[in-house]
Amino acid sequence: MxxxxxxxxxxxxxxxxxxxxxxxxxxxxxxxxxEPIEIMHVCGxxxxxxxxFGLRSMLPDDLSVTMGPGCPVCVTxxxxxxxxVALAEDGKTVATYxxxxxxxxxxxxxxxxxxxxxxxEVVYSxxxxxxxxxxxxxxxxxxATGFETTAAPTAAVLQADPPENFxxxxxxxxxxxxxxxVAEMPDTDVDAFLAAGHAATITGYGLFxxxxxxxxxxxxxxxxxxxxxxxxxxxxLEFVEAGESGLENAYPRGVSRAGNEAAMGAIDEVxxxxxxxxxxxxxxxxxxxxxxxxxxxxxxxxxxxxEPVDGAxxxxxxxCICGDIMAGTASPEGCELFGEECTPSNPVGACMVxxxxxxxxxxxxxxxxDL
Length: 371
Hints:
Elements: E1 2-4, H1 16-33, E2 37-41, H2 44-52, E3 63-67, H3 72-75, H4 78-89, E4 93-96, H5 110-115, E5 120-122, H6 126-135, E6 140-146, H7 148-159, E7 166-172, H8 175-184, E8 192-196, H9 197-203, H10 209-215, E9 219-222, H11 226-242, E10 247-249, H12 261-270, E11 271-278, E12 282-291, H13 300-303, H14 322-326, H15 358-365
Helix pairs in contact: 1-11, 2-15, 7-12
């Protein structure tokens, strides 16, 4: 069953009374279901809302809402960071988003490289990286990260005939295959998924129909206000209580079934999908975006001999469980480094760097408040 949650359009997104009504409905449904339920969301923005507004304190104890691999910075693999560092140390100007700046590679981060004199610049968009190339005589490499929402603007600037000295080192990721891997992991017991509304604005919610049919699990596409999240959880429990899998778009003000067809067309033209490792999780088939042959002239991997320096890195990194946290099999509080050796000012793992990282969010908001 696929539905388009038109009722969600009328919600008052931070209304305490509406939130309490939804929480009461959720509690009643959980009592009728009569067994623990595990919902996984795959979006750092969802986790921010859940933690900031204390939504877990409004849910029954036997209903778990866990973050999965929804932080693109967190799942960027260390060798990908190593490639960017090697290019910067070779004199190429590397431009990247601010949340990638301090993400550790095998040996060092881009912030470390910059402190040693390498040309590294923080940009806020792919087009700003193009502007940097137009203003620079040397080569500029855009270390491009993120899911479908940022892959689309990267594709757009490449389609717009950027300068010859502009290159892309793509670490873009595609979320649906990662959901499949998580659903198949023996250590996870996910009953349903709350999918990210902003990614679905690009892909459309119809993308998940095949997933629902294959894995027989409910999927609800949700927005990013507190009531959006509670509405999405309630919609999931409606499927569970009825004993059905299904798909609902609970973010109709931003998401359609087809999505942004122009953006997806650009992504499909500029990128190919390939197997790649998501940090600490697995090699995931068709989950990494790399530049297609047509755009090989702007591919940093094809045009430069990228040879990252091998090294052991920080020994603490071996104790980091960011991968398990992103897979939903561990929590930040279960990591022996959390809040001690690993803090936002001194991150050991990627989950503590990004504003969308589970560990940073847990550190900032204190996990689940006892209200």
